[in-house]
From TrEMBL:
It comes from Seriola lalandi dorsalis. Its main location: membrane. Keywords: Cell membrane, Cytoplasm, Ion channel, Ion transport, Membrane, Potassium, Potassium channel, Potassium transport, Transmembrane, Transmembrane helix, Transport, Voltage-gated channel. This is Voltage-gated potassium channel regulatory subunit KCNG3. Belongs to the potassium channel family. G (TC 1.A.1.2) subfamily. Kv6.3/KCNG3 sub-subfamily. One of its GO terms (cellular component) is cytoplasm. It is a multi-pass membrane protein.
Length: 406
C-alpha cells in the first residue's frame, strides 16, 4: 500500500528529511524499510509516532541530531558518536532505527563497551507490537511459554524441574551401565525400563514443543532442538536394530556403530542449557566470540608448528642414532608442544638436551602469553553475556507476571 506521493518526508524531532519511496526501501534502517510493507495506517503508526497523509509526512519523536549522524552513516558508510552526547543515548537511538553496535567505528565501539561496563546498562531492541491474540491461539501461547520459558509460571518451573530430574537420572544410568556389576541380566532389565521411561519423557516433551511452536522451520533449526534430536534418535535406532537382528546376534555383540549411538546419549546433558543460565551464557559467549576463538586456534597452530619442528631437530634430528625417540617425528613433537603450552605437562615425554630444555622453557612462556591475549576478550564477553541474559530473564519474568495479574 502506498501512502501519498512518491516522495516521503521524515520529521524527526522537528527536523525534516525528504526521501524517495524507492530509497526508503533500500535504506539499511529496518524501521524505515518496513514502512512500505504496512497495509494500513494502524500498522504504520506502530512504526512511527504520527502520520500526515496530506503531506505524506512521518513523525518520529526522536533525537534529530542523532538521526543526522545516522544518515551520514547511510551516505558514507561510517558511523560515529554525536559530540557532547551520551554514548548510551546514541546507542538507544541506533537500536530504535535498527542498527547494532557492530555498525560503529572501532574506536566508538570501544567507547560504548567501556561506557556500558561502567554503567552496568544493557539495551534490547524494541519488540514489534503484537497483534491481539485470538482465543484459540491464546492457550497455544501459554503452552509454548510453559515449555520454552522455565520462569514464566509455576507450571513451567515444575515442568523444568521434572525435565532436569530425568536428565540427571539418564546420565547416572548411562554412567552406571558401564560398570561390571551392572551387566547382570536383572540389572540390565531394570536399566532398560528406566531408559525407556526417560526417552519417552524426552520424546513427548520434544513433540509437544514442536506442535506449539510459532515457526516449525525455525524450531527445527535451533541448536538445542537439534541436540535433542541427536540424543533421542540413537535409542530408537538401537531398539529397531535389536528387533530386526535379535538381542544376542553377532551384529549386536560386535556392532561398533550401535555402541557409538548409545554413547551419544551423553548429549542429554546439554539439555540442561535450556534451564540453566550459566550454560546459556557459555553458548552465547562462544557464538559471539567465534573470531577470538579462531584467533586463539591460529595462535596455537602457528606456535605448535614452529616449536614442534625445532624440538624434533634438537632432540632427534641432530643425532639420529642417540637421539630422543619420543621426538622421532614432528607430529609426535606436536603432542609435547600442546601439553607444554597449556602448562599441563603429563611427563610422558620431555627434552633431555640443554638446547631442548631451553626450547621447552620458551614454549611454556610463549604458551602463557598467547593464551592470555584472546582469553581476556572472551572473559569480558562472558561477563557481558551473563549480565545481559540475567537482565533479559528478569525482564521477561516481570512482563509475564504483569500479564498474569492483568
Amino acid at each position: 500500500m502506498k501512502f501519498g506521493s512518491s516522495f516521503c518526508i521524515l520529521n524527526v524531532g522537528g527536523r525534516r528529511f525528504s526521501f524517495s519511496a524507492e530509497l526508503m526501501k533500500r535504506l539499511p534502517l529496518s524501521r524505515l524499510s518496513r514502512l512500505h510493507l504496512c497495509v494500513s495506517e494502524s500498522e504504520l503508526l506502530e512504526l512511527c509516532d504520527d502520520y500526515d497523509r496530506d503531506r505524506n509526512e512521518f513523525f518520529f519523536d526522536r533525537h534529530s541530531e542523532a538521526f543526522s549522524f545516522i544518515m551520514l552513516y547511510v551516505q558514507h558508510g561510517k558511523l560515529r558518536f554525536v559530540p557532547h552526547m551520551c554514548e548510551l543515548s546514541f546507542y538507544n537511538e541506533m537500536l530504535y532505527w535498527g542498527l547494532e553496535s557492530s555498525d560503529l567505528q572501532p574506536c566508538c565501539q570501544r567507547r560504548l563497551d567501556d561506557r556500558m561496563s561502567d554503567c552496568f546498562v544493557h539495551f534490547f531492541p524494541e519488540e514489534e507490537a503484537r497483534r491481539p491474540e485470538e482465543p484459540q491461539s491464546h492457550w497455544l501461547e501459554r503452552m509454548r511459554r510453559t515449555f520454552e520459558e522455565p520462569t514464566s509460571s509455576l507450571a513451567a518451573q515444575i515442568l523444568a524441574s521434572v525435565s532436569v530430574l530425568f536428565v540427571i537420572i539418564s546420565m547416572v544410568m548411562l554412567c552406571a551401565s558401564t560398570l561390571p556389576d551392572w551387566k547382570a541380566a536383572e540389572t540390565l532389565d531394570q536399566h532398560r525400563i528406566i531408559e525407556a521411561v526417560c526417552i519417552g519423557w524426552f520424546t513427548a516433551e520434544c513433540i509437544v514443543r514442536f506442535l506449539v511452536s510459532r515457526d516449525k522451520c525455525e524450531f527445527v533449526r535451533r541448536p538445542l532442538n537439534i541436540i535433542d534430536l541427536l540424543a533421542i534418535t540413537p535409542y530408537y535406532i538401537s531398539v529397531t536394530v535389536t528387533i530386526l537382528t535379535g538381542e544376542n546376534s553377532q551384529l549386536q555383540r560386535a556392532g561398533v556403530t550401535l555402541r557409538i549411538l548409545r554413547i551419544m546419549r551423553i548429549f542429554w546433558v546439554i539439555k540442561l542449557a535450556r534451564h540453566f543460565l550459566g550454560l546459556q551464557t557459555l553458548g552465547l559467549t562462544l557464538r559471539r566470540c567465534y573470531r577470538e576463538m579462531v584467533m586463539l586456534l591460529v595462535f596455537i597452530c602457528v606456535a605448535m608448528a614452529i616449536f614442534s619442528a625445532l624440538a624434533q631437530l634438537l632432540e632427534h634430528g641432530l643425532d639420529l642414532e642417540a637421539g630422543n625417540e619420543d621426538y622421532a617425528s614432528i607430529p609426535a613433537a606436536c603432542w609435547w608442544v600442546i601439553i607444554s603450552m597449556t602448562t599441563v605437562g603429563y611427563g610422558d615425554m620431555y627434552p633431555v638436551t640443554v638446547a631442548g630444555r631451553v626450547l621447552g622453557g620458551l614454549c611454556v612462556v610463549s604458551g602463557i602469553v598467547l593464551l592470555a591475549l584472546p582469553i581476556t576478550f572472551i572473559y569480558h564477553s562472558f561477563v557481558q553475556c551473563y549480565h545481559e541474559l540475567k537482565v533479559r530473564s528478569t525482564r521477561c519474568s516481570h512482563s509475564l507476571s504483569a500479564d498474569f495479574i492483568n
